[in-house]
Amino acid sequence: MTDYRDVNRANWDERVPAHVASPSYHVEQFLADPSYLSEVVRFDRPRLGDVSGLRGVHLQCHIGTDTVSLARLGARMTGLDFSRPAVDQARSMADRLGLAMDFHVADVYDAVEVLGAAAYDFVYTGIGALCWLPDIQRWAQVVAGLLKPGGRLFIREGHPMVWALSAGPEVPELRFPYFETAEAIVWDEGGTYVETEVEFSTTVTHEWNHGLAETITAVQQAGLVFDSLTEHDSAPWNALPGLMTEDGDGEWRLTDNPHHLAATYTLQAHKPAQ
């Protein structure tokens, strides 16, 4: 396999069963508690506002826990992901919960062709999505194409500074590009970001970083109006193992001097009404 999508899809397809079984995704809690929301969406709620009755699409939705959470807040949700096993799991969970949602298997760059243009009140993208895409400008054009006039983009993502770092023995080390590059950052790692005893056979992934200015500029050049950027000192995963501590809400911060590092950001923009 030479296409980055094939390489990454094989990796994500294999991760799905381990993620479904992991306590980190709380699948059983979703099934047992009708009010349960994912930790990511709970964090987003103060900035997300009221989505009741709105038609939303969650791009790169994986197994659908955040998508289901948005539906539980009253949104009419669609999910899209390039991994068929992930989408199958998302559909199964929505069906078991009695939620009327639709899920589609497609590459994010094909979302407008698959889902329809100007069809959504909001586009939602969660943590760890943009790093799998080589072209942030193309992604922003897809978002703009999906939104109705007046619709908005909501994304919380890992900060590009965090993606550029690796955990050193005492302090983080700057090892990877901050800006988007033509060549992918190629990883060959056996694990995943949840605790599991599964040994994976497809371990190679291709990833890219996208600087904050690149992302904001891409959104503006796609015709959206930039509304806000909030930087957070926490992330919903242990981004720098050995250097971070988890709080009671599933967020991880630097153990020492957490105010020294922006770990994630929330970006919001909207499509002009005219």
Automatic annotation (TrEMBL):
Cleaved signal peptide residues: none
Record keywords: Methyltransferase, Transferase
Record keyword Transferase present: yes
Cited Pfam families: Methyltransf_12
Superkingdom of source: Bacteria
InterPro entries recorded: Methyltransf_12 (IPR013217), SAM-dependent_MTases_sf (IPR029063)
Domain Methyltransferase type: 58-153
Alphabetical GO biological process terms: methylation
Keyword NAD: no
Record GO terms (molecular function): methyltransferase activity
Protein name: Methyltransferase family protein
Organism: Kribbella pratensis
